[in-house]
Amino acid sequence: MNIVKKNKSTILLIAVMVLAALYMFFGYKDRVKHLDSENVAYTIGEITDFGWGSKSSPSFTFLFSIDGKEKKGFYNITNELATTINNSIAEEEYFGKKFLVKYSVDKPKYYEMYLDKPIPDSLYNCNGCEWGKPPF
Fold first, then answer.
1. Transmembrane stretches, by residue range (predicted)?
2. Predicted model pTM
């Protein structure tokens, strides 16, 4: 009887883990599908904060606007910048800077900021601007 109880617990634990993995996998696939579709738009994001996770990569917090509503986004720093950045570098070189943000029109919760595409001076004061294609 005790063995059956242990097996039920193990089976339940494995089932929960498999369901969680499937949820994460299909969530990722949905995000990729929406960001690779034709129904995306571009806007401007401004970096406002920098943080360190205890077991995750450093990240920037940025603000961007969709249909006049301000949203908060996060950019995980996973390239070589992650090994060199600190609070003073983030403040001096990134705070207040603006970069291109791509988002899904159907599901605006899916977005990505392009740290390699800083906003040019000609568009720097363009607040709330949105484009169907990258403006530069």
1. 12-28
2. 0.82
